[in-house]
Amino acid sequence: MISHLIILIPLAGSVLAALWPDNRTRPWFLPAVGLLHAALCFRLLAAPPAVSPEAWMGFDPLAAAVLPVVSLLFLVCGVYAVPYLKIRQERPNRVFVAALLAVLGLLSAGHQARHLGILWIATEAVTLAAVPLLHFNNTPRAFEATWKYLLVGGTGIALSLLGSFCLGYSSLHGGGEGDLTFVALTAQGAGLSRPWVLAAWVLLLVGYGTKMGLAPMHTWKPDAYGEASGIVGAILAGGVTSVAFSAILRIRAVVDSSGESRVADHTLLAIGLFSMAAAALFLLGTRDYKRMLAYSSIEHMGILSLGAGLGPLGVWAALFHVWSNSLTKGALFLSAGNIRRAAGSPSLDDVRGMAAVVPRSSAIFVAGMFAVTACPPFGPFFSEMKILGAAIKTNHGLAAAGFLVCLLFAFFGLTRVVFAVVDGRPRPAAKVGEKRFRETLALVAPPLLLLFLSLWLGLFTPALLQGTWTAAVAQLFPKP
Amino acid sequence: MSGALLFAAVCLLAAMCAAARSARVSFAFTMAGTLAGLLAALAVLFGPDDWEWTSAFALGGEPAHLRLDGVSALFLALVCVIGGAGAAYARGYWPDSAYPASAARGRVWWNALVLCMGLVLTVSNGLLFLMAWEAFALCGFFLITLDNRRPEVRKAGWLYLAASHAGTLALFAFFALLAAHTGTWDLGPTRDVPPHLFWLALFGFGMKAGFFPCHIWLPSAHASAPSHVSAIMSGVAIKMGVYGIARFGGWLPVPASAGYAVVGLGAASAVLGIAFAMAQNDIKRLLAYCSVENIGVILIGLGAALLARAHGNAAWGKLALAGALLHVWNHGLFKSLLFFGAGSVLHATGTREMSRMGGLWRSMPWTAGFFALGAVAVSGLPPLNGFVGEWLIYLGLFDAATTRAGFAWAALPAAILLAMAGALALASFLKAGGTIFLGAPRTKAAAHARECAPGMLAPMGALAAACAVIGIAPALVLPAISRAAGSWNPGWSVTGAPFSILGPAQFVLAALAAAAGFLLWKKSRSNGLRRDLTWDCGYREPTPRMQYTGGSFAGIVAGWFRWFFWPERRFRRPRGPFPSASLRLERVPETVLERLVEPAGALITRLSDAALGLQHGRLQAYILYLVAGLATLGVFVFLEGKP
Amino acid sequence: MMIVRLVLWVALAPLLPGLINKVKAWVAGRQGPPVLQLYYDLIRLWQKGVVLSTLASPAFVAAPAVAWVAIAGAAFLVPLGPAGAGLSFHGDVLLMIYLLALARFCTAWAALETGSAFEGMGAVREVSYAVLAEAAMFAAMLSLAVQTGSVSLAAMLSPVPGAGTALLAAGLFIVLLAENCRVPFDDPNTHLELTMIHEAMALDHSGPPLAVILHGASMKLLLFAVLLTAAVLPLGSLPPIAAAASLAGGVLLVTLCAGLAESFLARFSFRRVPLLLTMAFLLCLFSLLVAWKGGAA
Amino acid sequence: MITALNLLIGLAMGLNLLALGSSRLPSLIRTVSTQGIALGLMPLILEGSDLDWRILLVATATVAGKGFVIPGLLKRAMRAANIEREIQPFIGLVPSLLLGAGGTIAAVALAGALPLLPEHAGSLLVPGALASVLTGFILLIGRSKAISQVCGYLILENGIYLFGLLLIKATPLLVEAGVLLDLTVGVFVLGIIIDRIQRAFDSLDTRKLTALHE
Where are the domains of chain C? Predict the structure, then answer.
């Protein structure tokens, strides 16, 4: 019941927000619904409901392992959104707020989808619902970003539908009755027709990989993240990508059951390392600190897919990394948003010395950068050490080496950009920005909170979460 | 014991909190903290048993397991001494009045650095070690870039950060492998891990220790940091790398070739490091390169010890080890002293270029005296501490040679190269001391220099005294050293024998030298002293420009090492009957960095530019990438899927 | 006993330069200065006043004294055949070498005090060539140590006749010439400052300090001569009288050779000095290898 | 029955080539709408024996959406943005045609590798689907005008729909979900119109959409 509420409440909130007359008070919907949603989510996390195997939707362990962090992230972003939208009075936020809430609802649906079709529908809907968010700034650049997001993302989503068809047909061909719940597909296991399964795996990996932003399907990401506001970036990077990732995990389990685990793992490793390497190369050259965040997100998607390819240990670590990455990325996006507001430009060519202009945001930005590059004691360090450990325990020495090398070059790139933004003498232009933008507590506290959450997650990983991740792994790797 | 360490940690934290409000209070806390830490370390060093503590709570899923044994206590003592001295020096050198923007920040990071180094030394759990290690590295970074408005400081800081992170990632791999083999993150003596792990540790810690060729970050970082920071970075921080190598070389099984490798690296660092130092004109770069040499000296001893232990705990091994450990202390002391001296000179003249100084002994006699003492010590000359440590290492090497055991051959080249390094060090510091403090001032700034504040002289005096005491009474520290050696390899505690004669001999020598100097001075006075111009072969008007410069001082040696330096030279000879201005410039680059690493970096940059070229914004191409990815994956799966 | 030994060192040292000059004069067919010339000079200098460069600090005067003490200390460590060393312990050889280095540091420091270009040159040459000399010295000492299995001079200086010892003797002799700034490395009685090493460093010294420097130099020469002799002749195995006699004879022989070398050789150009020193180093190295192999066999 | 179906599929494949070859926007749009109608009829033929309301619904929705609504929107966008009717291709028309033809052959070959259920044996569904997908990609990659890209996307989507027909009996929901893709297309077109209204950029030439790059 609650598991449906967490879908319905945001959608209802979205409708209400769309009807709400007042532009000033409307933003409060975000924290309110976010709070409710988070409360319900953690309630479910604490007391997982029984999910009947043939149910099409349900708060199963995998959902429990990922959805709460999305909800948490949304809550903090909602809190941040109120002051943010206040300083953006010039833009009507009706569509923005409504779409943001719709995205939350649909994300909840996507995470709980236990049916191939439902999963696809939810993802598609999220894609569409995110469009107005990207278009919020309503500039030509924003439109261009939206257009690219739509076309590339749409192509990917189309391919994932084709992949779903293939998977469905493989079940039919294997004598299935066309029951497309993952449980049924997994149960059919070796019965699935091999060629169709492989075709489906490729198509679905590319399709959902596009949503996740794995190279070379990542091309929409820099533009979208570069133009979107901090909140949207955080939600996209922390929320939408996680749906796509859990989708890939569910599908991987099906492929696994059909006896193709080797193929699945190797493809995941390959594409993961490729994404990390590509992201590292981009990071070494980019001159735009918001696009930098996009590339860093690509890198972390690569890390996730690497982890997913490393068997149970790796998947456990990857789920851990979903949490640490979402929270840390959130902090980075929000603080970067503040800096962007204050500096008036996202480009290194005319931004520097922000430590003198927005000291707090800059400090959070630097700390978040160290966190996201796996510097202890933040969350990502622990999750990435777990992934490294998994790679070593499963004798993927080369993968581990590649992983570390990519991390190193990514670190070079990130530090290069971040310190160029933070250090040095501020430009006079930035001083103007200082007058226009004041970093109030309300704008600084949320990213700081996220940073502390990431810290806390690393140092004191709650047993509850660890248990949930273990359960999720058990769900994805059923013992025969 | 636990109380003292807890007190130290609390005091340092308090100092960090108080840093912004009151410099004096923060300083008081720092002093208290470092003192408590020092006492704790000494208690372990001079006491029989180690200190160990395991927390009830867990950090990152691991219980905090702290341990203070001989080896770590030895390093901890150094950390505390320099931590305190540097904080004292900084009060005069980097005051709020002169650096309102960064002075308080500097105090915060300073205390954080000391605290983190203490943690690195005590933590005995892989995961937590990595945490402490990274935190320590970052503190170092923020201290180096205190004055981050200057571009060269940012550049140096970034280079340090990059190099340090490269090492840290190697350590990630090292500790992960270690944990995978032992099944626990807890650290301690263990035998059931593959020896080749040692190479990872050697690289990871070596990046911090800065032996050749992992030293690329060291000269620029130590030169552009504030001098008290250079002192702790050069005197102590790089020792953390040595600690790592020593620690895990002692705890884990090492490959048979490890000893040779470490000795080789040490010898190379010793000779090349000091050769580069000789060729520098920037006093702080000179000192930084000299640190490379001293790390080399320590590694020679350490490598010999590894070699000896690998071949049935040969007795000479413990002498080499003791020498290495003692040199850790010595180098920490006199290198910090020298950096403080260089800082005072920089403070007084506003330049690091030795060719713009000269004759400073007149205006800053105390600094000159302390610097000279440091120079004697760093050149490894009796009767100061530098000699004692190197003497032990030599003794180990010579004893190894006398055994004529087949594996001990490494001792012969090591001893000879060490000797050459010693002679080169003597030359370099004669150059430094002579060009800075002796002769006539070469610039106005040098002529009008002022002696630095007593607040800055006091720490120098303390360190100088420490150098002298260890030199003339080595027996005092021997128990500590032998305790450390004993906990590195049980049964290697050194008995009092080696110093029973050397110590008194040094003492007598020092006394006689002082007496003789005094007497000769008296005698000359009584015979009648007359001041006159320097006899410059008949010149009546010798100008400061006629003096021998540092550059020409290094000429002969630089010529010998030209094959390695690849110096950049610009040379315009005077030509014709009325020659135009001629010039002769020679600059010795950081060869490994500028000739090897930077070209590689440029290659990677070009690669990344090419990659960015793909992100050109044309949607059609983006979809093409997607299709290409699809096709590639298809082929990949098809090939993989073949049964 | 110790006093006697010191007096012996101090008293006999200035004899050697006189002898060398005598030999040179004899070869040139001149009468030459008396053998005791240096004694007279020292006494005279000791009573003279001092002219101090305006740039020099008190260290300018004190350094020569420290250098002298260091050399004396080094000499104190060298065993005189059966009489043994004044002070002998495990590793004293290292102390001896480093005391000589300390002496070098002090003289060079004093030279730099004046800021004179010529003394700068002298100091640079001194410390730079010392790098190679040091290497040769260490190779020599190592080969002795390997040969005798000991690291204490008293025990080390009991050579076994053989190719190794010959090589060692040749090497040490070159080192002796270099360390004491004799021809072909340096010319003690030229007056071209540009061509000098040791003398150039003493250019500005006068009166008692100069006396101390000169005496120190002579003591260093004697030290090396004794060392060379003891490294070649098995003094330990001879009866005391014969040992003392052969030691004295050896020292005289070395002095003679030095004198002859000065008479028949011209000063090398500075470009060739490193080559000669490298040769000395190689000689010592070969003797070391011989000793090492000899042991392995 | 299969023959009739294959006839339609063949028609669709022919329309693919026509779309690749058409040099003017209106004709391209017309081709796409025709293909949409042809696709709409297929489920009726496929399930000719027992028509239930769902199938009818799917068929009518498809015919309406693909055949009329979206083409109408496209025409409107074209008018709103009064762009000249010429298509400026990145990949020339002849090369695109050759590519398309090659793609069709490849599709037939590829389809041979995938086993089919007896009842689908002999139908051109799979090759037709793959051919359309490839055609769609060629248009997406090879055409510069936004509208022609939308048409390319439509054809891609048609291919997927064709494939869906394999499953229409077993899992109607999944196939119906495909309608959402039409929604995406609608959003595209809306985007174009909205943007046209905002005058963000004229002539709907995506070559102008390259402000965002490194």
Answer: 2-296
